[in-house]
Structures are given as C-alpha cells and as structure tokens.
Amino acid sequence: MTDKLELRLYTSAVGVYLTARGRLDSTTAHQLGRAIGVALDRYPTDRLTVDVAALDAIDAAGISVLMLFRTSALQRGVHLTVADPPPHIRAVIRALRADQLLAAAFRDLPGGASPRHRGDRRRSIAVPRHCLRPSTAARRRSR
C-alpha cells in the first residue's frame, strides 16, 4: 500500500474522468477535493466520473469529500459518479451510509442500465472498465 494519493484527470467522449490510486483518507482528501473542484470549474461537462478501482483504502474524510462534491456537482447540473469500487471500498461506503455514491453510478445512466458483473460469461469480450453504454435490452426498450 502507498501512503499517497495519485490522481489523473482527463476528458473523454462521455465527460471528465478522474482516477484515484492509493489512500483516500484525512491526509489526502483535500487533494481529491481540489482535483474535483478544478474539473468542475474548468471543464464544461455534464458527467464527472471518479474511478476508485485502484484505491487501497478510504475513510470518512474521503467519503465526505465525495459526498460534498457530489452535491456541488448536482447543483451545477453535473452528474458525479463513482465507478468500479472494489469490495472493501464499497463496504466502507455502505458502512458510512453513503449508498447514493454507489447508486449514482448506474441510476444516472441513460435507460437506467444496471452494472455488469465481472463473473458474467455471456459476452465473449472482457470489459476492463465500467461501460457507460446501456445494455442491449435497454436499447431495445428505448426504440
């Protein structure tokens, strides 16, 4: 485990993407807050995705920053979503009763697409990241 937080901010066709690696705790939460603030201020988008798949640990301060900036983003019309939380991060988010961070990632998608489970073998390709495209069933319903 690393004691620092590494952040990468970039834009994509679906919005602004921020990846976090390391520890998100009381000593590093301000870095995430600053990065999200920069993304909200400088990049006109309607979606900001925070990928937490590479986080080693998170605490109440990290969850608080995510909740605070999720509220701020919603006031600006931006959907802040948390993507790919590993089981230990998901457990902390649920323990601190911040489930809306988890639900937002899929509720805000077009057609209300549900998450793909990594154990699902119906597809012949592996999707390494969270796919923002609605499922085939959701696309058929929208026609």
Short description:
With 143 residues, the chain is an alpha/beta fold.
Q: How would you characterize this protein structure?
A:
The chain is an alpha/beta fold. The protein has one domain: Transcription Regulator spoIIAA (2-Layer Sandwich), CATH 3.30.750.24. 38% of the residues lie in helices and 24% in strands. The chain has helices at residues 29-42, 60-75, 87-95, 99-107, 136-142, and strands at residues 5-12, 15-24, 47-58, 79-83. Strands 1-2-3-4 form a 4-stranded mixed sheet, sandwiched between helices. Helix 1 runs parallel beside helix 2 (60-75). The chain starts with a strand and ends with a helix. Residues 106-130 have low confidence and may be disordered.
Look at the structure and give the mean pLDDT.
Answer: 78
Q: Biggest sheet: strands side by side, in what order? A: 1-2-3-4
Give the N-to-C terminal Cα separation: 47 Å
User: What's the Cα radius of gyration?
Assistant: 15 Å
| Shape type | globular
Instruction: Provide the structure class.
Output: alpha/beta
> What is the CATH architecture annotation?
2-Layer Sandwich
Secondary-structure element string: EEHEHEHHH
Q: How many beta-strand runs?
A: 4
Biggest beta-sheet profile: 4 strands, mixed
What is the level 1 CATH name? Alpha Beta
